[in-house]
Design a protein that fits this description.
Length: 209
């Protein structure tokens, strides 16, 4: 039996209020692959990501990490990282202090040079600026720097390019490509096709109606 890491969803359905957002949804994500969840506003993309994170239970079906349910797999949380709409930063901490805070919280974080992560995200000049004073796009870039604190196997990204300028988008796309080339995985929502950009060779589309 193969022990390859994988994310597999079987027969997922999600009901919100009176409405079935999706049903009988199946997908698989393997090393080096990006699942791109696409669909209209309100189609259930964020709800699906919450299920993939393990925060919300599906109404039917389950999500498996390496062939066991994410609910029963204590490793899953350590292997995956989520960037959602809220950036989860501490406004009174500077950019570098925010990264230091997350590095200390995470016993498995690498001894990474935090300056290097800010430089990678193009915000080294903001290192000593309180997060509350950063622009929206700078805060998003800082939130992304957290993903680089250690080599998570799975990035779960809800609209990662929202509020990000063209340079920032290029940086994030390149980081995603490097992540995938390193045999890791991504599940992301995004309103536009990824067929034209650097992720074109790595992604498959899951369309919600
Ligand atoms: N807590 C909730 N209770 C009831 N309905 C909810 C709840 N949260 C979301 N919904 C509804 O579920 C539907 C899907 O929401 P969701 O945020 O998953 O969509 P989305 O595809 O991510 O949308 P968008 O593209 O606008 O971000 C929406 O109609 C929303 O109103």
């Amino acid at each position: 039996m193969s022990h390859e890491i994988s994310l597999i969803a079987n027969n997922l359905s999600c009901i919100r209020g009176e409405r079935a957002l999706f049903s009988a949804l199946n997908f698989e994500v393997h090393p080096g692959q990006c699942l791109h969840v696409i669909g209209a506003n309100g189609s259930g993309k964020s709800s699906l990501l919450r299920i993939v994170c393990g925060i919300r239970q599906p109404d039917t079906g389950d999500v498996q990490w390496s062939r066991s349910s994410i609910n029963a797999n204590a490793d899953y949380l350590c292997h995956s990282a989520f960037i959602g709409h809220s950036d989860a930063l501490k406004g009174e901490f500077t950019a570098i202090e925010n990264l230091r805070w997350y590095q200390r919280l995470d016993s498995q974080a690498d001894e990474t040079q935090l300056d290097d992560l800010l430089a990678k995200m193009g915000i080294l000049h903001c290192a000593d600026v309180p997060a509350a004073q950063l622009s929206f796009g700078q805060r998003r870039r800082l939130a992304f720097a957290r993903l680089l604190l250690r080599p998570y196997n799975l990035w779960i990204l809800d609209e990662p390019f929202t509020g990000i300028d063209a340079d920032g988008r290029a940086i994030i796309e390149q980081l995603c490509v490097e992540h995938l080339r390193g045999g890791k995985m991504i599940v992301m929502t995004h309103h536009r096709s990824l067929n034209e950009g650097p992720l074109r060779d790595y992604h498959s589309e899951l369309r919600l109606n």
